[in-house]
Design a protein that fits this description.
By secondary structure, the chain is mainly α. It is 75% helix and 0% strand. It has a single domain (3-82), classed as lambda repressor-like DNA-binding domains (434 Repressor (Amino-terminal Domain)), CATH 1.10.260.40. The protein contains five helices and no strands. The relative contact order is 0.14.
Amino acid sequence: MRYYLYNMRKERLMTQRDVADELCITNQYYQLIEAGQRQSDLNASTIQKLATVFGKSVAEIHELEMAYQNERQECATIGRWLI
């Protein structure tokens, strides 16, 4: 799960629907992005839109996404070791 998106959304007192509306996507699709089930690698356009919605810099969103990707990769690697 992309907890950084969840936390920023909660800080701004927004619902997933609010964010989805700002991004011009469906609520269901945003839910999947936040859950980490869609857009496994956020593209530059989505990062830019998220930065605008949450009042953050593109660099900050990019850095948070990179940390999420690194954590996800580490979990996948550990999972392979356990099999």
